[in-house]
Amino acid sequence: MSNDKSAQELLKWGLSHSTSVTSTGGPSVEQISADIEAGRRPDLADPRLYDAIMGKSEAQMMREELTVALDTTLPLESRCTALDNFELLIEQIDNANNMTGMKMWSPIISLLSADEVEIQTAAAWILGTAVQNNDKAQMAVLEFKPVAALTDLLQSENEEVRAKAMYALSGLLKHNPAAMDQFDKLDGWKALRSALVDPNIGLRRKTAFLINALLFQDPNSFNHIPSSNTTTNSTATALAPVPTSASPSSANTPVAPLEQPPATQLTSIPHPNVPQALLSSSILLTLLSSLLPSNTPGTLTDLEPSGPNGDTDPRTDLDFAEKATTAILTFTSKLPQNVQEAQLDERLKGLFKALLQELEGKPLDQADGAKTRWSELGIEEEAFTQFKNKVQPW
Fold it and tell me: pTM surpassing 0.85?
């Protein structure tokens, strides 16, 4: 039996509350227990009896679901159902962290390269759920090189695969210099740039949001080149103040333990310089072009419309436009005080000025009551003013 002690205790409790056992002439609890130990009651020693009464552990359920998912001889529907069940189980952070000790990361990552897009989608969903706000899982999975697999999936012909890959990638890169290092070395920026012009406007929104998040978490100054000697700033807090000897309760007051920083911050791997990467990968140019009319001088000419029919101007999607504009404003806030040090070319400067003019202009939908484009997008006045003060003198 997998848990003999618990099973014996459960059995004794059940027997002690059984009318047939406590009635006159029935065998005692001790006698039945002795019979089980001697092998005379195989019907009660069956491990499945314990499972039937108490239910399987979540760890056992995870193993069983993953076994089904990996069995290529089973119907696709059964495998997908198993992966869906697995994803529900690892929504619990303890179960997600147990994937490491149970050696489940390697098979899950292998499923990202499965032939079936349904399996790829489910595996990316599991990865994204496991690392969501879970620094331990973010670090544990890096051993299995998930970034390469996810950036490959961003190029998939299947829309759902691309969406789930972005979901997983966003969770993995969040405040994670080690994952960002993998991403940077694999030129994941190229995949992000492609996602910015994806036919699915939902994926464009997620990409713009991620770009802003990466800018926001980057500790580097604009022109700083990270090196291996650079260490990530720790988020550990100091010890709580210890009461003085004058305090009557000081003798019995425990010292507060040192708060541990997230596992993602316990690394000497430097965070890549995000603004410089956005410049060199043309992501910044793509963001600016997507927020301006197509006839604006300097905009990219290869930007595709969005929507199922490929005929929707992304500027009309307020959610995307707000996220893309916010990313531009965050980028601008990182520029050095002397903008000449940023070495922006005249084309980019012209597009920044064009965006300023666009944001100060009338909203695209004047029926919603907004008087300017920036207010239509829900941009805070302070953020817009800072952007204006930075760009206007150029």
Answer: no
Range of the domain at 282: 187-219+265-394
Distance from C-alpha of 202 to C-alpha of 210, rounded to nearest angstrom: 12
What is the residue type of 173? L
* Residues 6+ positions from 327 with CB-CB distance below 8 Å: 208, 209, 211, 212, 215, 287
Span 368-394, pLDDT tens digits: 789 999 999 999 999 999 999 999 998
Which are the contacts of 53, defined by CB distance < 8 A and separation ≥ 6? Answer: 10, 14
Nearest to 210 by CA among 294, 117, 323, 318: 323
CA–CA dist 341, 280 (Å, integer) = 16
Residue of 117, 114, 63, 54 whose CA lies nearest to 86 = 63
> What single letter denotes the amino acid at residue 237?
T
Q: What is the CATH number of the domain that holds 147?
A: 1.25.10.10
From 29, 54, 79, the end of a domain falls on 54
Question: What does the pLDDT look like over 328-350, one tens digit per residue?
Answer: 999 999 999 888 888 899 999 99
| Beta carbons of 273 and 225 less than 8 angstroms apart | yes
Owner of token pair 């080690």? 178
Rounded-to-integer distance, Cα 331 and Cα 328, Å: 5
CB 325 within 8 A of CB 291: yes
293 within some domain: yes
Q: Are residues 45 and 20 in the same domain?
A: yes
